[in-house]
From TrEMBL:
Domain AAA+ ATPase residues, every copy: 105-237
Name this polypeptide is given: AAA+ ATPase domain-containing protein
InterPro entries given in the database record: AAA+_ATPase, IstB_ATP-bd, P-loop_NTPase
Gene Ontology biological-process entries: DNA replication
Domain of life: Bacteria
Amino acid sequence: MNTMLKTLQFRAETTEALCPTHHIPLMEIAGHRLCKLCAKEMVHRSHAAYADELQQRLLQQKIKNSGLNKRYLDRGFKNYVVACPAQDNAIKLCQAFAQQIISDHYPNLLLIGTPGTGKTHLSASIIRNILHNSTKSARYYTSAEIAQKMMDTWSDASRSEKEVIEHFSSFDLLVIDEYGLHDRHEKRLEMVHKVLYSRYDNMKSTLLISNFTIQNMQRDLGARLWSRLHENNLIVVPCYWDDLRFNQ
């Protein structure tokens, strides 16, 4: 063992040659010449590259765990195509909304408009931005999924409705897509509204996406919920332009 260690020990000798970058003498080790400062910088770059790669992997895992469908996993502000002034206004409002959450505020946001106008893309961009630039949590569900998970507790004694509501209220941002689509049954709508009330009580931000008009949203949510959504600044983003899916 000692013989092996002695074999692996190399003597470092200072040479008269200078490093062209740092202008210090090169060291010669096992027949190779190197600069001590260059070696340190190379190790530092290697560590930084590894840390960056690890950070990117963690981000991608968080995005995968955010509930977004496969179609929207790579959607962000950078690949959102702005083709009209209304879209430019929409993306700026969404960017400002994300920044407010990152800055420890808890506003709410409504993305309303006709189908195919990129509302879910914008919500995915907000989720990605928050997960990338903070330690905040963000989760995507459809309104129908929320209602169903709560109604499932009626036949599953292992989990209570209260626990499910607490789960939905735990995220710093909850995106509820397709509000007004598959939640029209009175009980389903009641379940979704319970989550909204709980999130208000816990001072958490909610993003609602709907094809409803602003008037229909106000009527459907009711005066009490509508008032609560406004308390910490309700940002309304109207999305009324051509269906982008027809132009792909």
